[in-house]
Design a protein that fits this description.
Layout: H1 10-20, E1 28-31, E2 34-36, E3 43-45, E4 47-51, E5 54-59, E6 70-73, E7 78-81, E8 83-85, H2 97-104, E9 109-114, H3 117-123, H4 125-135, E10 141-144, H5 149-152, H6 165-172, E11 179-183, H7 185-188, H8 195-204, E12 208-211, H9 219-226, E13 229-232, H10 238-246, E14 250-254, H11 262-265, H12 267-270, E15 279-282, H13 288-294, H14 297-306, H15 311-317, H16 320-325, E16 343-346, E17 354-359, E18 362-366, E19 369-370, E20 408-414, E21 421-427, E22 430-431, E23 434-435, E24 443-449, E25 458-464, E26 472-475, E27 484-488, H17 491-503, E28 507-512, E29 515-521, H18 533-549, H19 558-563, E30 573-577, E31 580-584, E32 590-592
Parallel strand pairs: 1-6, 2-7, 8-9, 9-10, 11-12, 12-13, 13-14, 14-15, 20-25
Antiparallel strand pairs: 1-4, 2-3, 4-5, 7-16, 16-17, 17-18, 18-19, 20-21, 22-23, 24-25, 24-27, 26-27, 26-28, 28-29, 30-31, 31-32
Length: 597
């Protein structure tokens, strides 16, 4: 919900002022807690008076209490601002935004910024606007940060033209827009009509410009900052972090399913003395089972404190600093009069176990339970039938286009925890359309098929570093254009996984020895589920276990890790598309290459 909406407009602030002055009674008072003041760095005993959606007063609030004032006992608990994720992709979470709210509110998350670019690419601007509307009232504030990639697709390597630059501009103008996401100097110079005008409109309207400066330094970073870039979630090294902090860019420490940069970058604070106020924390993408098992921003809080960050500084990083990175400090991020009464009450400042979560003055979660009514309204039928492959796959479809022998082949190289891939040239014995197993190399096949327009297009190549030893996995959730991706070492299992994934109208399927071992159906847009949260979570956990037990891969986040090998946009180097291998250079330069050298 828009922070400037009616319930939190000038009338809402006037009501809060009247309560603070004792002219009107508070709607709610939280008593007995210890307030974490992220501005002064102090922790002190005090109460919190709430007026509608906003905090009216903190400390001594006895004068705010009236006959109709409700109470929450915060004795023994720490009162924190509610947690914010400033860079999150709902399309990778495996659930709709309503179900995501049911999961995240009990963890203390009250707001997240998302581009909804995955559904935009698949179903257009109307899908984005519908999800923003459906988030209203869930307790989770969905903040809009449009991403230009939805309008560009992959160019000649896949563009559905279902979301245009005009649509992007309309989202920048949307009342819930807070940021134009993933900007840098290379993007600003793309020869795309109207794209520069979208940036100009964002600047005119005071939208934050969020950065994507992966691998950039020196003049390229300074050029981006000159255009207004205020944050960067792509920082992977201490050196990059220090450079950005010197230029006034807030570093969003990323800890997701396929990318774990937080611990690599954290020494910028703990060893090199960088100011913690210049850092926040984000997920980028995080899968459902990972969110449920590890946690969300509460998990990052625990990591930060365990690794040397002072508890109040850690709290700042998922509250005040996150709000600042989105230009929303006047609404979120502190327990102060006038801020939204979106709060997390936790047991201590080490485990950060969330006991209660309030969103805009409502108690939304308690002791791990979501308290608001579950949203049952179905998504439009056309958004649940969007996986169209146009064929039934056979094992022969996954043969490599390579003659028997020992040719030199291009192989996509992956590194755990990184989005970058490299181009590896390997001499591999090939027989019957595939590499001969048994030499100890961690190599599997990767195939990408068109799932949008029923063209039947399919290409197969090789990938290393995923740890897949047996069977196959198919998924319609992956970076780029959300095509049907299949990874495996057995062609028949790859065909079965692909066909079953299409039957489910989207999802993730694990196959071994001709048997489906686990699956999660994701039929809405072919990437998320609107089924009851417990049902989807149980399936997601079975898939994660099958990846370990049936495929033999120890890699956390196998699906998004493989999926980013399908993102032939700006992050180097060798990528996979429905048209075959694509070599991506810094700045987005791309060329098709053959699997054979």
């Amino acid at each position: 919900m828009d922070p400037s909406a009616t319930e939190t407009s000038s009338a809402g602030r006037r009501h809060a002022a009247d309560v603070a002055a004792g002219r009107e009674p508070a709607d709610l008072v939280i008593t007995g807690g210890r307030i974490v003041d992220v501005l002064s760095g102090r922790v002190y005993r005090g109460d919190v008076a709430v007026a509608g959606a906003r905090i009216a007063a903190v400390g001594d609030v006895e004068h705010c209490v009236g006959d109709g004032t409700a109470g929450i006992d915060g004795t023994g608990l720490f009162v924190l601002p509610g947690f914010i994720d400033p860079h999150f992709h709902v399309g990778f979470s495996q659930v709709t935004v309503e179900r995501l709210a049911e999961l995240l509110l009990p963890m203390g998350t009250v707001a997240l910024s998302s581009c909804f670019s995955e559904s935009a690419y698949i179903a257009g601007r109307r899908a984005v606007e519908a999800q923003l509307g459906r988030a209203a009232g869930t307790g989770l504030d969905a903040l809009l940060s449009p991403f230009h990639a939805a309008a560009l697709g992959l160019g000649e390597f896949g563009c559905l033209n279902r979301f245009s630059v005009d649509d992007l501009r309309a989202l920048v103008e949307h009342e819930q827009c807070v940021e134009l996401r993933e900007w840098n100097d290379d993007v600003s110079r793309l020869p795309v009509p109207g794209l520069a005008g979208v940036w100009a409109e964002a600047v005119k309207r005071g939208r934050v410009i969020g950065g994507h400066m992966e691998g950039l330094s020196g003049p390229a970073v300074q050029a981006a900052v000159a255009q207004g870039v205020a944050s960067d979630h792509e920082v992977t090294t201490v050196e990059e972090a220090l450079e950005r902090v010197r230029l006034g860019v807030i570093v969003q420490l990323r800890e997701g399913s396929s990318t774990q940069d937080l611990l690599n970058v954290l020494p910028a604070i703990t060893e090199f003395g960088a100011d913690p106020s210049m850092f926040s924390a984000c997920s980028d993408e995080q899968e459902l089972h990972s969110l449920a098992e590890l946690g969300h921003q509460d998990h990052k809080l625990r990591m930060l404190v365990r690794n040397g960050v002072a508890p109040v500084d850690a709290v700042r990083m998922v509250t005040l600093n996150a709000a600042r990175s989105l230009g929303l400090e006047r609404h979120y991020g502190a327990v102060l009069p006038g801020r939204l009464a979106s709060l997390a009450l936790v047991e201590d400042l080490a485990s950060f176990r969330v006991v209660r979560t309030l969103s805009r003055g409502r108690l939304c979660a308690e002791n791990g339970e979501y308290l608001l009514p579950s949203r049952l309204k179905d998504y439009p039928a056309e958004w649940n039938h969007m996986v169209r492959v146009g064929r039934t796959f056979t094992r022969d479809d996954f043969r490599l286009p390579v003659a028997d022998g020992t040719p030199t082949l291009r192989v996509i190289g992956t590194t755990p925890g990184s989005l970058r891939t490299d181009e590896r040239l390997l001499d591999l014995p090939v027989h019957d359309g595939g590499p001969v197993a048994g030499d100890g190399r961690d190599i599997a096949k990767i195939a990408v098929a068109d799932r949008h327009e029923a063209t039947g297009r399919l290409a197969t190549a090789l990938i290393s570093g995923l740890g897949v030893r047996r069977g196959a996995i198919a998924a319609t959730v992956n970076a780029g254009v959300m095509n049907l991706m299949v990874v495996g070492v057995d062609d028949a299992d790859m065909a079965l996984a692909a066909n079953r994934c299409a039957e489910l109208e989207g999802g993730i399927v694990v196959v071994r020895d001709g048997v489906v071992r686990a699956e999660v159906a994701l039929p809405t847009f072919g990437i998320v589920s609107h089924a009851p949260l417990a049902q989807t979570l149980a399936s997601s956990r079975r898939v994660a276990q099958a990846i370990r037990d049936e495929l033999g891969s120890p890699l956390p986040g196998l699906v998004p890790s493989a999926g980013f090998a399908c993102l032939a946009v700006s992050i180097p180097g060798l990528k996979m598309t429905e048209y075959g291998l694509v070599r991506v250079a810094r700045g987005g330069l791309r060329e098709r290459v053959s699997i054979t050298v």
